[in-house]
Amino acid sequence: MFNNYKPVKIEFEDGSVIIAGAGPGSLKLITYKVLNALMVADVIIYDALVNKNVLKFCKTKAKLIFAGKLKNKRACTQNDINLWLVKYAKAGKKVLRLKGGDPSFFSRASQESEYLQNHKIKFKIFSGITASQEAMKKLNSSFFNNSNVCNLITGHRSINYPNVDINYKSICSNNGKIIIYMGISQIEKIIDKLIENGRRIDTKVSIICNASLKKEKIWESKLKDLNKLIKKEKIKSPAIIVVN
Ligand code: SAH
Fold first, then answer.
1. pLDDT exceeds 60 at position 160
2. How far is the centre of ligand 1, averaged over its atoms, from the C-alpha of 100 (Å)?
């Protein structure tokens, strides 16, 4: 696709880090800026949801470090990643921290940027297309009717963490769409929370799995049938769940 493509000059200083988003998966959805950063980076630390084919465009000598999960087990810790970012930047390398979607959406970019700031390493953030942007465009436009609010939440965090920081009561009362990232594994509990807090059991729900990729699939359901559907269809992450 990019065979004859020549990188344009972007400002990527030696000894600095760019934290960037590679978009939801399709190579066509990587931004121009991120592609150019990738083409000149010396070290690329990338997550599991980054399309590996994009790595073909990096320099032959670039060092590639996988920082995602393998069969539910992390290849490394967040601390390892922080240390690598600082180590390679201090060695004068151009370090690209490449994440799926957009780095500012549920991706720990804030922890990494804080760490870099504390270690006086220069960094920039390059946006990507977040998964829900791609997911929403596949849905019937009536999804956007009669609503001035949109809630983006992480499913797994809402249930797994003892100090739940998601106020389901407030989300359910504001009448906006609820767009759930990382919701599949906790869906039963999330449905209970939504119904307990006033969402109707026949609320329309859509699930978009592998948005933008060839294997993309979309399902429609009602809130009360959602868990059954996920089990029956064996729907797995990565998926965005949109509750109307
Ligand atoms: N920073 C990412 C989100 C990381 S959290 C972004 O902006 O998109 C990981 C979650 O994102 C997944 O569990 C899933 O809910 C969602 N996701 C990422 N890529 C996706 C894709 N191609 N299709 C559907 N959901 C996706």
1. no
2. 7
- Nearby residues of 79 by Cβ (< 8 Å), 6 or more positions away: none
Q: Which amino acid is at 98?
A: L
* Residue 125 beta carbon below 6 angstroms from any ligand 1 atom: no
Rounded distance between C-alpha atoms, residue 219 and residue 21, angstroms:
26
For the Cβ of 181 lying below 6 angstroms from any atom of ligand 1, the answer is: yes
Residue type (1 letter), 96: L
Instruction: Say whether pLDDT at 167 is over 90.
Output: no
- Supply the pLDDT for residue 8: 66
The type of residue at 107 is: S
The single residue listed with the structure tokens 């020549």 is 6
Lowest mean pLDDT across 20-24, 46-50, 156-160: 156-160
CA distance 108 to 105: 8
